[in-house]
């Protein structure tokens, strides 16, 4: 599976919105595809309003990417638990996603604009 992971620039401008707020826009996002899973857009931390994110105690481990840390989104309507993940120290094969954040599309809107 590790050799099935592909990372490439996500062309165009991408935005992420949650709870009525724009959390960020980026022209430097990455698209990660892994096997048969839908593509995931990873946003550079520098392009996200980190003040809306609160670290969670949740973690998970992927044998092909490493240990993921999670964040909840602080929204006016209330917290959106574990809506964001990041590989703080990814394995070498996917080092490009270090300092990037991914968002669950079931919890936020990730769109190409």
UniProtKB/TrEMBL annotation:
Pfam families: NTP_transf_9 (PF04248). InterPro entries: DUF427 (IPR007361), DUF427_sf (IPR038694). Residues 15-105 form the DUF427 domain. PANTHER family: BLR5716 PROTEIN, DUF427 DOMAIN PROTEIN (AFU_ORTHOLOGUE AFUA_3G02220). This is DUF427 domain-containing protein. The lineage of its organism: Bacteria, Pseudomonadati, Pseudomonadota, Alphaproteobacteria, Rhodobacterales.
